[in-house]
């Protein structure tokens, strides 16, 4: 009953009604205020956003596109002032630029001779100017924000404000830095790389640096590797090149026929020292190279720091990295290279409920020269192949992974895998359209442990459809269930919040949103809807501040699957429904935005 749920649940907010429309919706008693939109100024002297006259120079000074990870780093220990760090994962050109979309009618003849017509969108290939705007709209933003009279606002003259783009100079560090496979025409040192791309989730380290994970890097490369090139198998394992973007037409490092090693310099974890806006971001090769979803961390009992890492692809793996050094809470500088030395592990989930963490260490087991790994650099550059040889467990798309320091448990979002034909205990559904969440319990609550146990917290999807096989608690309402868990957060009280990606696309009658999920006691497996996004969007970056009074969330690609910039109808997840959120102004395109959620009158969220 409701009374029972109320008595055992860690949450008490009134649930939002699930559904789909052009606006976002927050639980009654809360405000959801747009804080930063694509194109907003990041610096006092930045130009105003002019969507019809976009330029690289303007975009480099403005908030980027498709906000994903969001973190908050307090300044001087204050609750009311800090740095918001935000990833800009990718660009949706059909929503960003007018006049570039053509709708084609495609006729298909079925076996019985009947003809159906569908609409397909064609986006004109980017010219050099558009490519450079795209590159400037990628990366990340560091921006000071302040809370004034209970509401957050950007501080445009913040001394630490910074835009990071696909052209920002970065340093490769750790075991693979400088290796011959990391050397390019433009950089014979193998240590200097320009930019970061497809920064999905991320993290904030215990020492206050900003982590950007490089995820779907394959789309940025085009061309054909020279015949017989030694990186052919390595690139194929990652789907490189995928030619989604036209960058390689104007920047030869993204053309694998011209500078074949450049793609080895992407797919890493990037660390940014936000306290120095002139600092060179570092690509930390010790944490491996794959389609990094994020890197959330926890300080273990012995002071080493453990980073949980997902590789977001069907049948890829769950990893963790354990630093060799000890976190020093009293000396920030002493922690600045902790990510260059440690052990990377990959998970094997046994059917009997045990989990084993297998070290990806050169010389161990099959990771030897006989298998093409001459050094730790080779193991890291081809992390996936090394993990294949260790017989890690292929998972249903590992996304964000969040340790809970209060309980010693860790939550793994497995978003979906409709290509799974054979189930196992940790990936229990074939054709897994809605995903599931695994809870890992490390041995003796020690996050550095190499063994532990696991169980499934919840199999996602609509519990009222028996074939789906969802396992939300019976207290979960028709609004409370979700599919496709993606990003997540554990708040200061140890409560789990899950953001989703794909509910619009799957035609579930609901958009993506933020759900509160009970993990303890009788209410375990109960989910309720706190916030939902406009049509076409996914929800990213949920981050609840330490004082529990502000939830920062990132509304990514609103209107995707709906109308383009010019209002052309196009194949839509929901026919006739699109949005110009958050401005609702015909002169303004739809804009991905970061939203600050607060309780009306102030107070603790949830
Ligand atoms: Fe960028 Fe795996 O989501
Ligand atoms: Ca994600
Ligand atoms: Ca997270
Ligand atoms: Ca996603």
From TrEMBL:
InterPro entries on file: PhoX (IPR008557), TAT_signal (IPR006311), TAT_signal_bac_arc (IPR019546)
Database matches in Pfam families: PhoX
Top-level lineage group: Bacteria
PROSITE patterns cross-referenced by the UniProt entry: TAT
Record-linked NCBIfam families: TAT_signal_seq
Protein name per the record: PhoX family phosphatase
Origin species: Paracoccus sediminis
């Amino acid at each position: 009953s409701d009374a029972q749920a109320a008595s055992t649940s860690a949450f008490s907010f009134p649930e939002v009604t699930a559904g789909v429309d052009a606006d976002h919706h927050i639980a009654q008693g809360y405000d959801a205020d747009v804080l930063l939109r694509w194109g907003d100024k990041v610096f006092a002297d930045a130009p105003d956003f002019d969507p019809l006259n976009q330029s690289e120079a303007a975009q480099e000074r403005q908030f980027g596109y498709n906000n994903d990870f969001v973190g908050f780093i307090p300044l001087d220990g204050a609750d009311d002032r800090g740095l918001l760090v935000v990833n800009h994962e990718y660009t949706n050109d059909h929503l960003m630029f007018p006049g570039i979309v053509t709708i084609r009618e495609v006729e298909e003849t079925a076996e019985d001779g009947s003809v159906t017509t569908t609409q397909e969108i064609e986006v004109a290939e980017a010219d050099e100017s558009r490519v450079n705007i795209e590159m400037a709209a990628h990366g990340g933003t560091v921006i000071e924000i302040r809370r004034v009279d209970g509401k957050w606002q950007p501080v445009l003259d913040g001394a630490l404000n910074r835009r990071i783009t696909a052209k920002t100079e970065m340093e490769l560090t750790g075991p693979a830095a400088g290796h011959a496979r990391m050397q390019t025409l433009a950089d014979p040192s193998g240590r200097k790389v320009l930019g970061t791309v497809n920064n999905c989730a991320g993290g904030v380290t215990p020492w206050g640096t900003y982590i950007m994970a490089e995820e779907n890097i394959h789309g940025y490369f085009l061309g054909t590797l020279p015949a017989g090139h030694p990186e052919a198998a390595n690139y194929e394992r990652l789907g490189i090149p995928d030619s989604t973007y036209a960058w390689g037409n104007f920047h030869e490092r993204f053309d694998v026929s011209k500078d074949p090693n450049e793609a080895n310099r992407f797919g890493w974890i990037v660390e940014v020292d936000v306290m120095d806006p002139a600092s060179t971001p570092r690509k930390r090769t010790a944490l491996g190279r794959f389609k990094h979803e994020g890197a959330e961390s926890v300080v273990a009992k012995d002071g080493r720091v453990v980073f949980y890492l997902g590789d977001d692809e069907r049948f890829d793996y769950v990893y963790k990295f354990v630093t060799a050094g000890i976190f020093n809470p009293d000396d920030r500088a002493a922690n600045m290279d902790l990510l260059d030395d440690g052990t990377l592990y990959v998970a094997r989930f046994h059917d009997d409920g045990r989990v084993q963490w297998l070290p990806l260490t050169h010389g161990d087991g099959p990771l030897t020269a006989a298998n093409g790994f001459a050094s730790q650099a080779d193991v890291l550059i081809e992390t996936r192949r090394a993990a294949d040889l260790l017989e890690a467990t292929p998972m249903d798309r590992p996304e964000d992974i969040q340790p809970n320091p209060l309980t010693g448990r860790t939550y793994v979002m497995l978003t979906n895998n409709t290509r799974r034909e054979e189930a196992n205990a940790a990936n229990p559904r074939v054709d897994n359209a809605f995903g599931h969440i695994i809870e890992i319990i490390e041995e003796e609550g020690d996050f550095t442990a190499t063994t532990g146990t696991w169980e499934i917290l919840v199999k996602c999807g609509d519990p009222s459809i028996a074939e789906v096989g969802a396992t939300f608690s019976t207290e979960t309402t028709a609004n409370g269930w979700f599919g496709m868990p993606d990003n997540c957060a554990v708040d200061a009280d140890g409560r789990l919040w899950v953001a989703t990606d794909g509910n619009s696309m799957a035609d579930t009658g609901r958009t993506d949103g933020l759900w509160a999920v009970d993990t303890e006691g009788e209410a375990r497996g109960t989910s309720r809807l706190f916030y939902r996004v406009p049509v076409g969007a996914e929800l990213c970056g949920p981050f609840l501040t330490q004082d529990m009074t502000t939830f920062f969330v990132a509304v990514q690609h609103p209107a995707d699957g709906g109308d383009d910039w010019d209002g052309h109808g196009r194949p839509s997840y929901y026919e006739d429904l699109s949005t110009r959120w958050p401005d609702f102004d015909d002169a303004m395109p739809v804009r991905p935005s970061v939203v600050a959620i607060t309780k009306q009158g102030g107070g603790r969220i949830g």
